[in-house]
Design a protein that fits this description.
The chain has 375 residues and is of the alpha/beta class. 42% of the residues lie in helices and 16% in strands. It has 2 domains: 164 residues, Isopropylmalate Dehydrogenase; 160 residues, 3-Layer(aba) Sandwich (Isopropylmalate Dehydrogenase). The two termini are 41 Å apart.
């Protein structure tokens, strides 16, 4: 953990305007530093009634905020002495991280000053700190990270979890992921009846590890009560397809798939660039194809689907990619805003409940009336 500067303070409370959604931002995490984060916040503030609590070095953040007219009067800067680096170990941060911008950002959600926390920082540290400060929802054994996967669906993406919160997952964990993922798809993204698939090495019933086969039976039974469609096993090729909305897997597999997809997208982009700049004739062809190439680049741009959501906690945390620029940060902050507007976490907690006792007992899905009266 790195020191930020001296102590103190905050700006005015003017960020709390009428009906304004307040978001808590770890402004020191990420590869591009506070400048990219503040620029991303300005993009969102220009179009939404939002206020921010920024956590970090006030001497760096103050001038950056002052340069953004869209942020005038809607930011409260909370000084934090330390910063969680990408090299810090989660256990180290838990023991010594109380003075970091990340800890402070999560604390604002814990105290209900803000509705959602957003950070570009160290994923392991952010998850560990979030579990420690916000605690898990009753009955949730392992929180999960839900991430977007570009696909042929109308929304342009599928939801996959776990994206790397925990490398292990037994059949009960996979069932919880299915329930949380379905609720996230429904309440966070308006998919009335989500289609849930379980990632496996094949679609045949006899394939896969024992815990995956057991999870399939549990999810199929739960789907009848929890109002989603279980389509059975899906394969790697289905990650990009339009036959599924939510893909369930363990964090090890999910994270490997995610990083592989990101690397493949970059390689395809590099290959296209090389192909269209190789010769004078190919550069001429690129001019004629410019509109189509821009459309393709926009559709494949991972920055526009940036933001993984920590599911299963008493509070909402959005993890932005560490390498996100202003556009990527804006996408994660927009996601946080939309989740806050939909009261997502309250609906998630109300929808899925478990019987007390051993976490490996059969789950009881209890239908409760949601805060809004409907999902």
């Amino acid at each position: 953990m790195m020191p930020a500067a001296d102590t103190d303070t905050r700006m005015s409370g003017s960020h709390r305007g009428p009906d304004r959604t307040i978001l808590s931002i770890d402004a020191m995490g990420g590869d591009h530093g506070p400048a990219a984060i503040v620029a991303g916040l300005a993009k969102v503030a220009a179009k939404r009634n939002v206020g921010f609590i920024l956590h970090g070095n006030k001497h760096e953040l103050g001038p950056l905020v002052a340069k953004q007219p869209a942020l005038n009067g809607i930011c409260d800067i909370r000084h934090a002495d330390d910063v969680v680096t990408m090299e810090d170990k989660p256990a180290q941060v838990i023991r010594h991280g109380k003075n970091t911008s990340m800890w402070s950002a999560i604390e604002s959600v814990k105290t209900r000053e803000a509705e959602v926390c957003v950070s570009c920082g160290n994923t392991g540290a952010l998850m560990a700190m979030s579990v420690l400060r916000l605690r898990k929802l009753p009955g949730v054994s392992r929180p999960a990270i839900a991430v977007f996967w570009p696909s042929r669906n109308k929304m342009g993406f599928n939801i996959m979890l776990d994206g790397g919160a925990d490398i292990r997952a037994d059949e009960m964990d996979l069932l919880q992921y299915a329930l949380m993922g379905a609720s996230y798809a429904r309440n966070g993204h308006g998919i009335t009846r989500p289609r849930v698939g379980l990632l496996n090495v094949g679609t045949e019933e006899h394939k896969g590890r024992a815990e995956i086969k057991a999870a399939a039976d549990l999810i199929e039974d739960a789907a009848r009560v929890a109002d989603f469609d279980f389509i059975g096993f899906v394969e790697g090729g289905d990650l990009l397809s339009d036959r599924v909305d939510v893909i369930v897997t363990d964090g090890f597999t999910g994270n490997v798939a995610l990083k592989t997809g990101e690397g493949t997208a970059k390689m395809v982009s590099d290959f296209l660039k090389e192909a269209f700049t190789a010769t004078p004739l190919s550069r001429l062809a690129a001019l004629f194809a410019m509109t189509s190439l821009k459309r393709l680049r926009k559709r494949m741009d991972p920055r526009r689907s940036n933001g993984g959501v920590f599911l299963g906690l008493n509070g909402t945390v959005v993890k932005s990619h560490g390498s996100a620029d202003a556009t990527g940060v804006a996408a994660a902050v927009k996601l946080a805003y939309d989740l806050a507007q939909s009261n997502f976490n309250e609906k998630l907690a109300a929808r899925v409940a478990y019987t007390p006792g051993d976490s490996h007992d059969a789950p009881a899905l209890i239908e409760k009336k949601e805060p809004s009266g409907e999902e």
